[in-house]
Design brief:
By secondary structure, this protein is α+β, with helices and mostly antiparallel strands. It has 10 helices and 43 strands. Helices cover 16% and strands 34% of the residues.
């Protein structure tokens, strides 16, 4: 099959309208090796980009002048910004709607997405609860069963709003299951509302709590619960800086205005992230306080202490530490203190400081994730990104290694201490999420639920390879595709990455990726440094002034795929969201000729000002900030995507995606990057931004919007690889 290099693309400028005439198309069907005898001509109109006003805004930091001509786009609620968003969407959707197979992609996505999905069940009081989605419901619905097996609908988030954009973001029951506090997100916002109801009667029992952010909900008996929120910022609720988190106690029956602050009001207690959880015995309140997304202090209060004396278990932010369980006045703690790959330790209230912690499950060479249920601990290890699970008793004696259904990701393994069976989920890139029932006595698993999806996993293959990064580091990568694919360099390939915040990309199933692979696409996921796949050292190797390692790992993955003939630069797309959006932005500006398509989603793209919005300053552990010192500023300027768009460079075809209500990575990152690219890039490749309205960072996005967005992304990607017809 000849290369897409034979395509002729000519731009005709006529009264401000760009027409793309693509002729002599030799590759017209994905996954098909035959060459079409008949050439086709496709006309696709790209409207002129909206004019983006360039102002004279600039920052001077350590005597370095840093222009910021599109600073006005940070005003997310101005009429001028709203008009710009509308104009950009008009150009983008006009283009996408012309792609000849876009509707076909949406139809197939809807078809394959339309299957029943359920969650693992969990017991609360007199009922067993589970989530279920009939297929294309915008939000999953909560159902429950009583002991007779009678099933009823309990809570339907699809009724929360007419357009499906209000989602259920969390539920917390009292120990007896009678009361429930659940949180909702409107338009994808991180700001939450909390509603309290009697779970048995399903009656709302008091006024809705508002303005709650980055919070769990933990009950103290049935009297009330703890939650966290920020001091309300001045200015835009969407983008204003939030850095003073507090732990509140809400007494049932009292107005929210009377809620007590348990932590965060006294001098020295100001923290960016605060969380609180009550032990099941209801004797202790554990408090976690952090300044960034890595490292936290761990404290506790005895709830019967009228003075509320705070006891320090782990001072400072050198470690991550969290309570796993309390049993017979023994605290069980998961931590990376003196253990980069984590360990489970125990402590007593009298000797709770970290200097006295004793191993229950010691650190190994593999990263540990710990859970508990049925009177056991379950140690899930990542061994080259794949799950291995061991069952331990409370003294740390190994009972057995569990037999898992295959190579992939297993998670769950949690429940009440009285449970005799637990449920877990198993998945990988070509196996849907199946739920298994685990017998705790003999360790046997049996299939509890399997989805009925319109595809055959046996038609696909997923394999792990290791490649060498720029500095010689070996990096694992999972590569998935249809069986029988010819490795001749012409396969459309989606390279997806993240590489940050100690996040591990373990194998997981995606309906959208199946549609990509059905049409001859390859889906590749490297486990970049900055993630947590190999512990703290792996994470640290991709932070601050080692951040370039992450980009080098991703670029090396692309070169490996090309060298091994999986694909070529003409058929290679890169995609990532949030920190992964930064990854895409940095790599496309560093190696613009290596990729055909770039798909940065909700990305952190302005590395000079990211810490000035919402809770962005909390990301400084990974990134550093421009205010730290001159050396850090210069390092950030070297890779910040916004500041490395160069005049006259031909960048890949680019589709930036964001939400206009994203209050985590504010949309100004994407707005300014799009404006800079449209102003400076050369060549005929389109540079578009798709701005989802009434949407946030991604969580709780309605299924209908997700399907539309994925259809647009795939249509844009395939078409800009020169593919004009799908099977």
């Amino acid at each position: 099959m000849k290369s897409i290099e034979n395509h002729i693309k000519s731009y005709v400028i006529n009264k401000g309208v760009y027409s793309v005439l693509t002729g002599f198309l030799l590759v017209s069907m994905i996954g098909c090796s035959e060459v079409k005898d008949k050439s086709k001509e496709f006309n696709l109109t790209l409207l002129p980009y909206p004019e983006t006003r360039a102002g004279d805004y600039a920052d001077t930091i350590f005597d370095i002048l840093i222009p910021d001509p599109f600073r006005w786009l940070e005003d997310d609620r101005s009429d001028e910004t709203a008009a710009w968003v509308k104009a950009q969407n008009a150009v983008t959707f006009n283009y996408l709607e012309q792609v000849p197979f876009r509707e076909k992609l949406e139809a197939r996505l809807s078809e394959i997405w339309n299957y029943e999905k359920i969650s693992a069940p969990f017991r609360k009081g007199k009922f067993t609860y589970f989530y279920k989605n009939d297929g294309l419901q915008n939000q999953s619905v909560v159902y429950r069963k009583d002991d007779s097996g009678k099933e009823e609908l309990f809570l339907d988030p699809n009724t929360f709003s007419e357009d499906g954009t209000t989602s259920l973001s969390g539920m917390s029951f009292t120990e007896d299951g009678e009361l429930l506090a659940y949180s909702i997100s409107e338009g994808g916002s991180d700001w939450r509302k909390v509603i309290v109801m009697n779970a048995y009667s399903k009656e709302i029992i008091e006024d809705t709590l508002v303005d709650i952010k980055f919070s769990g909900i933990s009950w103290k008996g049935k009297d009330g619960f703890f939650y966290s929120s920020y001091v309300k910022p001045e200015g835009s609720e969407l983008s204003a800086k939030t850095d003073h988190h507090k732990l509140f106690y809400h007494q049932i029956g009292k107005p929210q205005s009377e809620d007590e602050v348990y932590y965060g009001d006294l001098p020295g207690q100001k923290r960016r992230y605060v969380g609180g959880s009550v032990s099941k015995c209801e004797k202790y309140l554990f408090i976690s306080g952090a300044e960034s997304t890595s490292g936290n202090e761990l404290l506790y209060i005895q709830l019967d202490d009228s003075k509320r004396q705070i006891h320090a278990m782990a001072k400072g932010f050198e470690q991550d530490a969290s309570i796993v369980a309390v049993h017979s006045d023994t605290f069980y703690i998961s931590t990376n203190y003196n253990a980069p790959n984590k360990r489970l330790v125990m402590a007593t209230p009298d000797n709770a400081e970290k200097e006295y912690w004793m191993d229950v499950i010691p650190e190994t060479e593999n990263v540990l994730n710990i859970s508990r249920g049925g009177g056991y601990f379950f140690a899930t290890y990542m061994i080259d990104v794949l799950s291995v699970v061991h069952q331990y008793d409370l003294k740390g004696n190994k009972i057995r290694e569990l037999s898992l259904p295959g190579a992939g990701s297993a998670y769950g393994f949690s429940g009440e201490k009285e449970d005799t069976v637990l449920y877990y989920t198993f998945t990988n890139y070509v196996v849907p999420s199946n739920i298994y029932e685990l017998n705790l006595k003999d360790g046997a698993s049996k299939l509890y639920w399997q989805p009925a999806i319109d595809f055959d996993p046996n038609d696909f293959v997923s394999q792990q390879v290791f490649y060498t990064s720029k500095d010689g580091t070996k990096i694992p990568m999972m590569i998935s595709h249809k069986k029988g694919l010819k490795m001749d360099g012409t396969n459309p390939t989606m390279l997806y990455g993240y590489g940050g915040f100690n996040v591990s990309l373990t194998p997981s199933f995606s309906v959208a990726n199946i549609v990509w692979m059905e049409n001859g696409g390859i889906y590749a996921v490297p486990n970049l440094r900055g993630g947590g796949e190999y512990g703290k050292s792996w994470h640290s190797a991709g932070t601050q002034q080692q951040k370039q390692n992450v980009f080098d790992d991703f670029i090396s993955a692309a070169k490996y795929l090309i060298e091994q003939k999986y694909t070529s630069s003409d058929f290679l797309a890169i995609r990532g969201g949030s920190n992964g959006g930064l990854l895409v932005g940095a790599c496309m500006t560093q190696e613009p000729n290596l990729f055909k398509v770039a798909l940065p989603a909700v990305g952190v793209l302005d590395m000079i000002r990211y810490h000035r919005f919402t809770a962005g300053a909390g990301w400084a552990y990974d990134y550093g900030t421009a205010d730290d010192n001159l050396e850090m500023l210069e390092y950030l300027l070297e890779y910040s995507p916004l500041h490395n768009v160069k005049e006259g460079v031909k960048y890949p075809s680019t589709l930036i995606t964001t939400g206009d209500h994203d209050d985590r990575v504010v949309p100004a990152h994407s707005f300014k990057f799009a404006a800079e690219l449209q102003r400076k890039h050369a060549g005929e490749n389109p540079v578009l931004i798709r701005i989802e309205t009434n949407a946030g960072h991604g969580a709780g996005t309605p299924i209908s919007k997700t399907i539309e967005q994925m259809a647009d992304i795939f249509a844009f990607t395939f078409f800009n690889m020169g593919i004009t017809e799908l099977k």
